[in-house]
Amino acid sequence: MAEIQPPAEEIRALVGHEFPGGKYTIAHWENFLLTECTGSEPLPGDLVHPVVLFHMPILGAGTSIGGMFALGQAESDFSIGIESYDWEIERPLHEDLEYTVTGRVTEADRMEGPRRNDRPGVYDRIQFRFELHEPDGGGFAASSTITWTYRRSAS
Amino acid sequence: MNVQVGDSIPEWVMESVRPERMRTMAAILRDPNPVHWDRRAVAALPFGIGERTINQGPLGLSYILNMLMEWAGPTSVRRIVMRFPQVVLDGDRVIARGTVTAIREENGVRLADCDVSLSREGEAPSLAGTATVALPPE
Q1: pTM of the full predicted structure?
Q2: Does residue B49 belong to any structural domain of this protein?
Q3: Contact between chains at B79 and A86 (C-beta distance less than 8 A)
Q4: In this predicted model, what pLDDT tens digit does every residue of A125-147 receive, in sequence order?
């Protein structure tokens, strides 16, 4: 059987990897443009559209979509698939509030079988969990759990 | 708000998924994946999609959020768990739908658990999952 790169052990060793963490403030312009992309009218007051829970935790934790592709040693941008997104909102998010963000890899394993819109094959399943906390020792505000698949081809 | 198990949530329709919104989204997300902004890159893939960009997963999810917020209020969504069995493409007309599967109380707040989906008319869901929504007082 042809060898799959990277070795499965390298993928499994990602569990527990922590991103640097950091702060993120959602500006009005960012919320406005994001909300417009969803086809919704702006939400009342300074409320942030919850669609922000995809990119804000990623950037706030000190990584990026490209960085997460690279961490899982993606063969290309096209090799990534979405398994699921799980967003929890304990407290509504607001513009101009500086949230503290943490992020880490919670699951990583090699799998075999069909993926969405794809032929059966070998892929790696990697799960990331990000958490947002309000400023000044404020409580837990929201979390985002992202599970992606990384298709592998035999070398 | 009078809600019962089995109730349907009013549908939310995106009449046409627009590629320029995907591009704005890609810029804000710093999303390097060209499937969201380069039609020729998509056409070169072995998926038979043609020259149509693929909507970001979070954008499709946001249509379901819009449905839930229009139904129960802008701060109502407590959790959403979504899977993505099919892609949504530029030009698609997609409909967000939901059904209440349970009503419960937690810390004095009345919560509705819902099955939610996003699909093209007459087709299997492109997105499917569950959501928990805090209900306004009756």
Answers
A1: 0.94
A2: no
A3: yes
A4: 999 999 999 998 889 999 999 99
For residue B30, being part of any structural domain is answered with no
Kindly list the structural domains of chain A, giving each domain's residue range(s) and its CATH number in brackets, ordered by start. 8-152 (3.10.129.10)
In B37-86, alpha helices (H): 39-43, 57-72
Chain B residue at shortest CA distance from A57: B29
Distance CA B26, CA B35 (A): 10
Q: Is residue B2 part of a domain?
A: no
Strands (E), chain A: 22-25, 80-89, 98-113, 121-133, 140-152
Tokens describing residue A7? 């070795």
A151 vs A132: CA distance, rounded Å:
30
CATH number of the CATH domain containing B12: 3.10.129.10
The reply to whether A70 touches chain B by the CB within 8 Å rule is no
**Domain-embedded: residue B46:** no
Complex confidence, ipTM: 0.94
CA A83 to chain centre: 12
B124 close to A (CB below 8 A) = no
Task: Choose among A30, A80, A84: nearest Cβ to B28.
Answer: A30
A55:B83 CB<8 A: no
Task: Residue B120: give the domain boundaries.
Answer: 8-17+54-134
* A82-99 pLDDT, tens digit each: 999 999 999 999 999 999
For residue A84, the chain B residues in CB contact (below 8 A) are 81-84, 129
Q: How many domains does chain B have?
A: 1
Task: Answer yes or no: do A37 and B84 touch at CB < 8 A.
Answer: no
